[in-house]
């Protein structure tokens, strides 16, 4: 009995192979399957069969079967069609896309946006995170199959790679980068917006307060820089020390971010703003959080005069003309027009030479300490309110309050005592 059944199965398989073999011998140019919803064909210069299939909305999609044998190509074409129709019913793209494939598209979009801006922004951080963490870990996995457990395991792996538990600001960059990948998948139709993709955790280790300078230390630093900036032995030192002095003072007088934001300023980004008969220096900066106007302290004009006097290509113009002519040259550069890649190393030397490298809590001061000092003094002594300061510094009022909330009671001491 069993022998008879096996013989029948073999007979049916033999008939199927004979039928497919006869199709192969006939070498049809086109095969119609599934009532014409699947079309199988082979190009004249290819050994592999191609297929096109019709989706539920009537649209047609082309795809290779990856098979050279007709019987395998038929089976593969039908599998492709069934999977595509099933995915469409679930609200998914008709074809699966891996995280690596989606990330590649996302990175192309990010690079185009970065090139359009022409300077370093938060987009550079997102790009780095996607390429260094998301692609190596998730690779060929699909977004729609990821679970909360998968995300938690990724975060543990990421923390091991970083050899530390990341701070909240770092995690915010990760969540933003992850959102970019998901948005790319939705906008390109790779997944439906109805598909729930787990989110990354954004709560991390609380960051330490940045080391700042006291008012007395700032006075000490300004006095020290005046002589220090003229003491360079090498030609490059005689260029970079005066430039650093101007750079440090401008950061103290504006609160702008060092790096891309400050180093990207050009003479044409400066203008006079008059209010109630008083003339103020207004500076346009563009960096991490986009462009904004800020008002510099009056002492910043002395910095500009020193820069103007040293720069050979504009020193022939009157100081006022550099404003009206909208000179396109960079503000912070050597006398020959060259801009150094970074002033971080020279600043560290300045801190060591002045004895101000470390604050009372043992924290090392950096160029960012100047921005933190600006905010602290503006709140404590300048009488600035948090919302005004957030506009000046390019931060949200919530972030300003989070970092400087300890100063609010001190600001209101005259009303609280």
Automatic annotation (TrEMBL):
SUPFAM superfamilies per UniProt: DNA breaking-rejoining enzymes (SSF56349)
Keywords: DNA integration, DNA recombination, DNA-binding
PROSITE patterns: TYR_RECOMBINASE (PS51898)
Domain called Tyr recombinase: residue spans: 208-417
GO biological process: DNA integration; DNA recombination
GO molecular function, one term: DNA binding
Lineage top rank: taxon: Bacteria
Coiled coil: none
InterPro entries: DNA_brk_join_enz (IPR011010), Integrase-like_cat_sf (IPR013762), Integrase_catalytic (IPR002104), Integrase_recombinase_N (IPR010998), Tyrosine_recombinase_XerCD (IPR050090)
PANTHER family attached to this UniProt entry: INTEGRASE_RECOMBINASE PROTEIN MJ0367-RELATED, PHAGE INTEGRASE-RELATED
Family as reported in the entry's similarity comment: Belongs to the 'phage' integrase family.
Name of protein: Integrase
Organism: Limnohabitans parvus II-B4
